[in-house]
Amino acid sequence: MSNSKHFVGTWKLMSWEVTQPDGTTYYPYGREVVGYLIYTADGYMAAEIMDSDRRQSDPRFPLEIATAQTLPDPDRARAYSTYVSYSGTYTVKGDTVTHHVKAGLIPSWTGSDQVRRFSFDRSRLIIGAGNQRLIWERAAKNA
Fold this sequence. Notes:
Elements: E1 9-19, E2 25-26, E3 34-39, E4 44-50, H1 73-81, E5 83-93, E6 96-104, E7 113-121, E8 124-129, E9 132-138
């Protein structure tokens, strides 16, 4: 199933699994990872993934001034290390989807092509690269 129309819609991340060299499974952002992947019919995509346990070290930090530039260094480091996002366009060829990154949190990804193998299993989209596997399900309207 390599037609891009099967991708179109919003997907909710169910699991991000990394298989370690010893065969054990590691969950980079925990078992309760939160993420959404959106593919549009006109060829755009956006992905956001975060650790469900993200929090500031100082909960009294005023929300109205909390931006990436104003966060204390420990909070900024934690925010960066518990979140990944990027967006751009996508193409599908065979069993590969390529995300052509136009903007993203990781500077070196901007302008790059992120190539991922994929498969569909009922209502799930499974995307992998190397030893990593992300399992997505079609998102319900109020997910």
